[in-house]
Amino acid sequence: MHTYNSILRGVQCLAYPRHMTDAAKQLICRLCRRDPQQRLGSYGRMDELRGDAWFKNFDYTAFRTHAMRPPIKPKVRGAADTQNFDRYPAEDSFATGIDTSGWDEEF
Questions:
Q1: Residue 81: helix, strand or coil by DSSP?
Q2: Smallest Cα–Cα separation from 33: which of 2, 3, 6, 10?
Q3: pTM of this prediction?
């Protein structure tokens, strides 16, 4: 119900993290407008999206030519190195086994 009510209220009413800038919040709201024709960058209007304040310092030329340096470059020891991921318990509390509830019999 919480998710459903959040959807009904709209993205502008969400509780954003404190560190998120106003430009980022406005970009999200403009991308998530209910009417698709009013959404930023929709229907081939990508220049409108690229011109948004949130992208003001983005170097599209460096991005296209693969010259852009990443803000963070993690150290990776090999293909199976997982040191950069959060750790979670090996076992979870999700139900397993055969579903005998019959909820989908007439699906």
A1: coil
A2: 10
A3: 0.58
Please list the alpha-helical segments (H only) found in 22-99: 22-31, 46-50, 60-64
Mean pLDDT check: name the lowest of 18-32, 38-52, 81-95.
81-95
Q: Where are the domains of the chain?
A: 2-64
CB 41 within 8 A of CB 31: yes
Angle at 87 between CA 84 and CA 91, to 5 degrees: 145
92 pLDDT exceeds 70? no
Alpha-carbon distances of 85 from 4, 67, 72, 75, 81, rounded to whole Å: 30, 26, 14, 12, 9
CA 60 to chain CA centroid, Å, is 20
Pick the closest to residue 33 from 43, 42, 24 (CA basis): 42
